[in-house]
Write a structure and sequence with these properties.
Elements: H1 29-43, H2 46-54, H3 64-85
């Protein structure tokens, strides 16, 4: 069995999976708002919620600004951890 991050000696490390929808840079704000509204409506669908629950997921919508903050915080947090480890990608 593979140890969890905590079992491997990192008791405060916690990773949370989330899935997001991105659009190309420069997409007009009204289009972004429209897409966000459609996605948030879908997340309220009982059928969609049930499908996600069967896979162990909980739907949680956000605003584009909230998603930006979440992504920026994750980059800062995990970027620092990656730098500390000296990790280098393999080509």
């Amino acid at each position: 069995m593979v140890p969890t991050i905590r079992e491997a000696g990192y008791p405060t490390a916690e990773g949370v999976e989330f899935f997001e929808l991105f659009v190309p840079a420069g997409t007009p704000e009204n289009i972004i708002a429209q897409l966000n509204g459609h996605v948030r409506n879908a997340l309220q669908s009982e059928r969609f919620k049930e499908g996600l629950a069967k896979q162990g997921f909980e739907p949680a919508g956000s605003t584009p600004a909230e998603l930006r903050q979440l992504v920026e915080a994750d980059i800062a947090r995990w970027g620092a951890i990656v730098k500390q480890t000296g990790f280098k990608p393999i080509d």
